[in-house]
Flavin reductase family protein (Streptomyces flavotricini), 176 residues
Amino acid sequence: MAIRQLDKPAPEAYRASARQWPTGVAVLTTLDGDDRPHGTTINSLTTIALDPALLLISLRATSRSVAHILRTRSFALSVLAHDQTEEARHYAAPNRAQGAGSPLGEQSRPGPLTGCALLHRACAHFECALDSMQTVADHCLVIGSVLACSAQDTTPLVFSQGMFTSPGAARTASIG
Ligand SMILES: Cc1cc2nc3c(=O)[nH]c(=O)nc-3n(C[C@H](O)[C@H](O)[C@H](O)COP(=O)(O)O)c2cc1C
């Protein structure tokens, strides 16, 4: 069947529909031009392949993290735990302190492979080398080759319908 040409969806309809897709929340960490840790909240993380281990994140092209990743060709991800909403909010705020003024140094340790910050108390950590980057519309799709990862048995933070929540009872209902 041929696709019918319709008007573009209204931005509000697209946003409202996309909000119904729950995600986890992670802090993407990079090193800035002075090799200081930089953190950015993201929820666009998707795993692509198991062997080789590849993951994808989507960043606004204007995100400072894009330039940092292109410079160092590496990044890390800390998947936030259910009680880390403060970190999620902090690393999304556009006017947050950068460089020496950022709390990131105290809240993390450097990853052994990339030097990128790994947040304390996170559910999982990934250290990645940049595999490739592609600009699509006003975003950059960043594919990372996973160099190392680790997971803790803690409940992750969930972003759903524009709010932070905890899966809670979901831990008792697996899909398998
Ligand atoms: C829950 C949540 C998820 C977000 N996910 C993304 C994302 O996947 N990609 C992105 O570019 N920005 C995302 N943002 C917005 C960035 O965190 C925000 O624009 C940040 O200030 C960018 O910082 P930077 O320019 O230093 O990288 C998200 C914000 C929140 C609160």
Summary: The CA atoms of residues 27 and 41 lie 4 Å apart.
